[in-house]
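Anyone? Bumping this.
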Amino acid sequence: MTTPSLSPSLGPTSTIVAPALRLHGDLAVWLIILAELLTFAILFLCYAFARSFDVAVFNESQRTLDLNSGAINTVLLITGSWCVVHAVQAVRRDASGVGARWLVAALVCGAGFVTLKVIEFSAKLDAGIDLSTNTFYMFYILLTAFHFFHVLLAMLFLVILLVKTLQGAYGSHDSHALETGAAFWHMVDLLWIVLFPLVYVMR
Amino acid sequence: MFNTALNRIWLALLLATGVTYWLGESGLSGSAGMLPVLLMFAMAAAKGLWVIYDFMELRHAPLMWRVLLVGWLAFVTSMIVLAYWIGLR
């Protein structure tokens, strides 16, 4: 979605022109992003307030989580986001090859996140932990699995964008789809930035 | 070629993650009252702002979108801190 510059003419001698305000990416996807943020906000607050009424159970169960894995996953998602920003900037400069390499790097970060998460989920399943174990694990599985599927979806978008970037579909003339996929990827990162301290660290 | 401002933001995000990890690993996030948790979610909010403004490129987006996302971040982090405070009482 684009909007006209909000910098009105200041007169015939004025040379000051503010950059046009612009939402990068597709409006429909941004509305989906808002819906996702709202859904996760409800889950985050349900977790936080449920915890405040059952602190002992939450603290005891949280000790079984792997803080190292959670921190590495944070680094992977942040680095993945950083790679995607570089990819978008490279494509806007018509450097599609460079942009594609940044997208591959982002996908490697995503794959690392998915691998660690699968290991973490497997360990919990092997320990006999499921949604009915207690309130903490119910929220832990719900939140992290829901987020996990968003990472998978974001990776699927990145793969499609990578193929199109390699085909030269994007450039200074058009980076709209790439910006849309990037916004969704960054949303996944933003959600984890709140989820990590909430579920893994706060005791 | 290599946007240094972006790289500085990335390093700041990693540094904040390191501090959050240390708060958890040292046990401070559960034994020192409100302060470490306040610090942790202030850092989460700062990280989120960087992502919203510089990664999602909302710094130059229409005001409504900045209000919506920054408002979401402020509301969620402050409500979590409030819930933690209730749990301490």
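Late reply, but here is one note on the structure posted above: Chain A has one domain: 27-201.
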